[in-house]
Design brief:
5-stranded antiparallel sheet
């Protein structure tokens, strides 16, 4: 057998992307896969906790509001130049997310308020049709 010793250099200059079913199970899997990727890439604990919450909210929104039967949503994590970016893409470009006031007794409607509070920046990009991508960025601490 040919055995090789390799050393893997973990760098945030990588990305992770996966297609998931637009269901509650798909949203949970998005969160679990994101945590695994961030651990493998040694994302600092505080950033990882915040990014996990962002993934959970954006994936839940894609599974709830961006759901189209037979079409998956995509989770992408990008690490580059001091920024961790979370992207969730679904196929409901006609339904753009917006922050709305929620009823105090309501069970939903606070997801984008959390995203706005947790992320350093966030936004929505349309296209190509029929897709939209909701993204959130977190600044990484200087080493």
């Amino acid at each position: 057998m040919n055995q090789q010793n390799t050393t893997q250099v973990l760098s945030l200059a990588r990305h992770f992307t996966v297609l998931l079913s637009p269901t509650p199970r798909g949203a949970r899997l998005a969160r679990l896969l994101a945590v695994g990727w961030m651990r493998d890439h040694e994302v600092p604990y505080g950033v990882m906790e915040t990014a996990t919450q962002l993934v959970a909210e954006l994936a839940a929104n894609a599974a709830t509001h961006g759901r189209v039967a037979g079409r998956s949503f995509r989770l992408t994590l990008l690490g580059r130049e001091g920024v961790l970016r979370v992207e969730v893409t679904d196929t409901r470009s006609e339904r753009l997310p917006r922050v709305q006031p929620s009823a105090p007794e309501g069970d939903s409607g606070r997801g984008l308020l959390l995203v706005e509070a947790l992320a350093d920046r966030w936004g929505v990009e349309q296209g190509p049709v029929p897709r939209k991508t909701v993204w959130a960025e977190l600044d990484l601490p200087n080493p």
